[in-house]
Amino acid sequence: MPKLTKRRVDSFEIRAKAYFEWDSEIKGFGVRIMPSGTKTYQVQYRKGGRTRRASIGRHGNITADQARNRAKEIMGELSKGENPVEEIAQHRRAPTVAALCERFFTDHVQHRCKASTQSEYRRAIDLFINPAIGNFKVVDVERRDVSELHHKMRDKPYQANRVLGVLSKMFNLAEVWGLRPDGSNPCRHVPKYREEKRERFLSQYELQRLGQTLAEVECDGSETPYVIAAFRLLILTGCRLGEIQTLQWDFITDQGMELPDTKTGARRIPLPQAARAVLSALPRLPDNPYVIAGKVPGRYCTDLQHPWRRIRARAGLDDVRIHDLRHTYASNAVSSGMPIQMVGRLLGHTQIQTTMRYAHLADDPVRRAAEENAERLNGFVSGGHVGRPPLKLVGQ
């Protein structure tokens, strides 16, 4: 059993069955010759009463001397009680990020998240995460990998931050599931991009234009009555799109709309007379429980974005999103002097901080009152009050 060299390994014949040739210098170091002709350097040792074997590299890709040096390192680590071969094997068996994504989606997202959130997570996984790092081993992902993915999406800061949030949640669960060490989330300290919060409210004139356009498309039949009713209800109630889109007739009571499941849980929404009038004029289809009926029998209208783009273009409101109707509802409520806490209740906010984005609008009625009061006082000061001499200001 001489020393393994390139010449000797090259000379080993090919047999019908695989066999081993061992090195004379290092016990457990050898080469495996396959019937296909492939020759692979191996290290063999005993651990836990069992014989274990691991591949070092293929002959031709590494030299016999390189394989021998690696075998010495492995044997030295084994003598210290370490088990590098098992670590290598565990790494090979370790799940990829793509596999983690699927477990995250099936074991967590589908059971704990609402349908709209599931759709957002699925989109982030399929379009951004898997193409970038799906083939990485979960244990190998580092902060620089996440930072690089986030940086590549810098032209879409909002989407980049949402993807970062999905990744962070996923790697937190990877720690819970024992796939990464505790406290090793690679998303930590990756700074989010600054997001410009849109606060687009429709003015009184714009609301009039929108109302006129809704009346026009209702008359010419270019949009269904259910689509038109959906936008009118959004304006009059301040509801989220999904709350109106999936509204069922059974949810409507004398107290309002009793929604069993919203973004913030079960919720009762007041239904003013103007909104009830919209509902009363809407045809109720047999065998369809939904108020905003869609093209598919028994289902609700799943696409309100395309009709909205047509309607807003006709009204000359191309920069207005559907969600801006909710902002408009809130801004009108605050500007009219309604307490911010009451506005939050109408909108279904669970955190007052969410409603505080409209707080600056509460200054409008105060400014108007200040103007009216000052104008009235100025009438006295400037001599506008008949029957009395004008007052002189200090210093005159």
TrEMBL record:
Keywords: DNA integration, DNA recombination, DNA-binding. It comes from the Bacteria. Residues 197-371 form the Tyr recombinase domain. This is Site-specific recombinase XerD. Residues 95-175 form the Core-binding (CB) domain. It holds the Pfam family Arm-DNA-bind_3. One of its GO terms (molecular function) is DNA binding. It comes from Roseovarius pacificus. InterPro entries: CB (IPR044068), DNA_brk_join_enz (IPR011010), Integrase-like_cat_sf (IPR013762), Integrase_catalytic (IPR002104), Integrase_DNA-bd_sf (IPR038488), Integrase_DNA_bind_dom (IPR025166), Integrase_recombinase_N (IPR010998), Integrase_SAM-like_N (IPR004107). Belongs to the 'phage' integrase family. GO terms for biological process: DNA integration; DNA recombination.
